[in-house]
Amino acid sequence: MTFTVKKTAAGAMAIAMSLAVLAGCGGNSGSNNSAANSPAPASNTPANTAAPENTSAGGGEATKLSGDFTIQYFVGGYGDKWWKQVIADFKTANPDLNIKEEAGPQINTQNKPKWIAGDPPDFVYIDGPELNDRQMAEDGLLEDLTEWMQTATNVDGVKILDLLAQQPPQYGGKIYNVPLVLNSWGVFYNKALFEKNGWTEPTDWDSFIKSSEAIKTAGTTPFIHTGKYPYYINSSILFPAIVSANGNDYKLFQDMGNSDVEAFKSPAVLEALNKIVELRDKGFIDKASVSINHTDSQMLFLQNKDAYIPNGLWLPNEMSKDVPADFKFGFIPSVTQKPGDKVVANTSTATVAIAKNGKNKEAAKAFMQFIFSVKQASKFAELSGAPSNIKGDISSSSAPDFVKQAAAYLTADSTVVVPTVTFNQDVDKAMQDATVALTIGKIDPQGWVDRVVKVVEKVKK
């Protein structure tokens, strides 16, 4: 809907609803999620940004930036080292600009009143709980960047759209936000533990099941997930399985994201749900999963109580203080494909946007041009532990090995890279609740579909 700031209960409620989503830790869930422990950052100001100037998107005359410029960013699994560095670099390039940082693990909740009152920050990083890019765009909270993005260049003069590994999402045919992080959901395991026990690292569903049987026989629980936030298992297991079952065509999955009722009734959805049933019926799922949060499940995984965990690439960074010295992260985007079939990488992006009611949009656009440079992208991988959405080879960078491994998957011809899909909030919640019920045997796959379809039909009305 089109949003106009009005000091009424109805107006406030509309925005409050758009800012209320799932809790979690790093990445965007239509599934939002994201504590870095990386090397101390070095100065990374691109050579052509040393002067305190901003080059306009169209390549026109430079404009000196001044005044207040407020940036809101969530601090979760990706930490804040990169943000501190890039903001310092931008300040060096624009000394007359008064940059205000509004950041932290609770910033989305803390800043909600500002968004409701029509006094938001100028620039926002859409990640973590309480923010949903689709809802914010549809409720008119974000600046329409459609026209600007067609010609916008970064500080090196390269067109931003040409640099992006994943293009901006479009809502109603318009661009409101741009992916900064290109993450991937997937399944983590401890390579050191597997080597010690002679367990086979999975490449597909058959090898995943076979290794899980060996793991269970050895006395270790094969699989744990975050029952309190079921979008972890949905994003890492269910959704890739749907794409695989649909002949590696992710159009069906996108149709689900668009609340297409018939898409949820597809045989591919039932086939994917039955994979979760197989895990359940073989006794592979840790019974503690149903009631624990992300950090509790991750801690049990790090203690080798459980061999596999569905998660996003922020996991090693988020738990860096608790990772044993001999722990070696292994990662595969999907395990649900048939032998010989392609790996499916269900991506999770965290995006950046400019507030429609921001007071310094000129500085906000200049900052967007600044952060989408190859140099800043490389530094992001090093300091945050996740790939940036800028195309480029990071194999020679100092990024963690698991990040390089994930980046290799995301650029391989043998991988189906699924563009990030953001679900309607009510539909996403219904899928999560249904999946939890499925994992503990309260419903069967058809029951999952029936539950979710009822909500989708209500949303469509």
Write the layout of secondary structure elements.
Blueprint: H1 9-18, E1 27-28, E2 32-33, E3 67-74, H2 81-93, E4 97-104, H3 107-110, H4 112-116, E5 123-126, H5 133-138, H6 146-149, H7 160-163, E6 170-171, E7 174-175, E8 177-190, H8 191-197, H9 205-217, E9 221-223, H10 231-245, H11 251-257, H12 261-264, H13 267-281, H14 294-302, E10 306-312, H15 315-318, E11 329-332, E12 343-354, H16 361-371, H17 374-384, H18 401-411, E13 415-418, H19 425-439, H20 445-460
Parallel strand pairs: 3-4, 3-5, 9-10, 12-13
Antiparallel strand pairs: 1-2, 5-12, 6-7, 8-10, 8-11, 8-12
Can you give a write-up of this model?
This protein has 461 residues and is α/β, with parallel strands linked by helices. It folds into two domains: 9-183 and 348-418, D-Maltodextrin-Binding Protein, domain 2, CATH 3.40.190; 185-347 and 423-460, Periplasmic binding protein-like II (D-Maltodextrin-Binding Protein, domain 2, 3-Layer(aba) Sandwich), CATH 3.40.190. Helices cover 40% and strands 16% of the residues. It contains 20 helices and 13 strands. The two termini are 15 Å apart. The model is unreliable at 1-61 (pLDDT under 50).
